[in-house]
Here is the input.
Amino acid sequence: MLPNKNFNKKPNNLNKKPNLINNEIKFQEFTLIDDEGNNLGNVKRAFGLQLANDKELDLVLISNNPTNPVCKIMDYGKYLYEQKRKARESKKNQTKIKIKEVKIKPQIAENDLLWNAKHVAEWLTEGCVVRVLVNTPGRLATKQELIFDVYKRLLQLIGDKAVVKTPLKMISSMFYEAVLEPKKGNK
Here is the structure.
């Protein structure tokens, strides 16, 4: 028998309604708000359902608070559509941060360091965040002055295009890390 390939996937909740509507509401008494936004006070469930049916709209449970539930009369399909549209718009307006990474060694040649600095400067002008990793294999991990020297040379070559978000620090026995952000108004 073959194993189920979908064991790590989350269940699809697209068809699940976030609010209870009409006969799904089990509260016998609740605060009712009509379709125009007027508060009608505490009413019985049957009266709220009858009022919603008369207006050919849905009775929707807005607040599921057991001491003071709130229901509203509205067109539930239109409400769901507007919620999805708002979620789509907010997702569209999000800014995505791109993270680029450059690895250097303390004994890097000057030309290679210039090449890396040129790419880091390009990424920063594009608005990317740059993660600088200094690889220190073997005994180089004990040569702190070489590690910080190559990092300072890289920063000098980049110039004023970057702001240091996190300074150079040891993240493992072989790697030092620093994070650079683009300077505001640098684009």
